[in-house]
Amino acid sequence: MSLSQMAVKPRPRFQKRIIGYSSDRVRLPFYIGVSTSKGRSRPISLRLPNDRSFLVSILISGPSGSGKSVTTRVLEENIYLEWKVFGHNWRHPIFIFDSKTNYLGLDKPNRRKRDRYLLSAIHPKWNIKLFIPKDFIHPYIPGYVAPADRRKILEEMKRKWEIEDFWGVPWRHITDLAHLGTVLKVPGETLWVEDLRPAFDKATLDKTLTFRDLVKVDGYLEKAAKRIRNASSRNAALNFVERWRKNRYWFSDKNNLVKYLEAPFSVNVLTFVQTPEKVYFNQLALLIALESLMAKLQESTVEMQPVIVIHDILNFIGEEKPFRKEILDALKRLLAGQARTLAHGYIVIIETQTLDLPKELSDPKKYTIHIKMKWKSQSQNLAQTSGFIGGCADVHDHFRDFHCPDVVIRPPLTSYTV
Prior knowledge:
Blueprint: E1 30-35, E2 42-46, E3 55-61, H1 68-86, E4 92-98, H2 113-121, E5 137-142, H3 150-161, E6 165-167, E7 169-170, H4 177-183, H5 192-205, H6 211-215, H7 220-226, H8 231-246, E8 251-252, E9 265-271, H9 279-299, E10 307-310, H10 314-317, H11 324-335, E11 346-352, E12 369-374, H12 380-383, E13 392-397, E14 402-409
Parallel strand pairs: 3-11, 3-12, 4-9, 4-10, 5-6, 5-9, 7-8, 10-11
Antiparallel strand pairs: 1-2, 1-14, 12-13, 13-14
């Protein structure tokens, strides 16, 4: 059956179920490639836990150029296919945090000659064309990249990176004004943060208060700053409010990233511009994006299984990165299942070049699945195979206690950039 003929109802071979086993517990096996161990080839598929409320964590590790991003794309395609086959029984909004435009090409089939040859020779049952409709893909870029000429810059971003719109930082999810003060370069010698925090916390709970009302001249926050008794703290707080007002263009009352959270399927991307002058901005934006996403997931009662993808996590939690401790804390809570509810769990996919990570994230056995990418020369079986065969990995499914070395990862069915 071709992909274009797939209906949202389960295929006939999935209709024979155990009595009492609900239809929404049937999952699509995630075909990722072929095993070459023990001198024979056999297809390898990941079988994720059937419970929708389960937390699935997937770690993809390996050296640069070994195929981590391509393997992540293979998983994203399988997630799309699962929704396409089973429909609303498996709703999968995908959230991607990325700094290398790995999302480009999702809306086009893969036409690379090398990949088509590999699919036909090694993965013949998957030598098919696939693309995700463009209406499902929503890439955003933080608003601070365009302090002026926003319309012109957005048009350029749409042409170059297919950006849908700017992403405004949702101000209600700022957990600490000191973080924002650091980015805005407000002197931190005084206790202005402690003096201003009660008023800000109260403002975040007022659903009728807009961001414009918060930071405008004689607005909510400025009036609160003027009530501070200590002169040094009062001047520092007023300085903070003024700087925030000048940088208001990269904040928003709503979070566009979760706009399609309750859609049956969507790909929502927040892509960052990795430049030295934007490091503090990017780190704060990621922290607030994670916090706001978790808060929204905790509030949601829709039955679904969201997917959170973090490409090259060391870009954000490397040594001496700003707000590293706070981002690690958010990731630790995310991987502990803080955003789970009875209605939904979620899938977390983390991509990293090395396992030399902070101890909260470094143990591969704590993840549901670990895909360890490697060079072809690292495998005795694959080293004896002539020619290029694609990405290679050892697969460790700790949930089902399934371990398979020397898996040749299939090429993506959608187009991609390197």
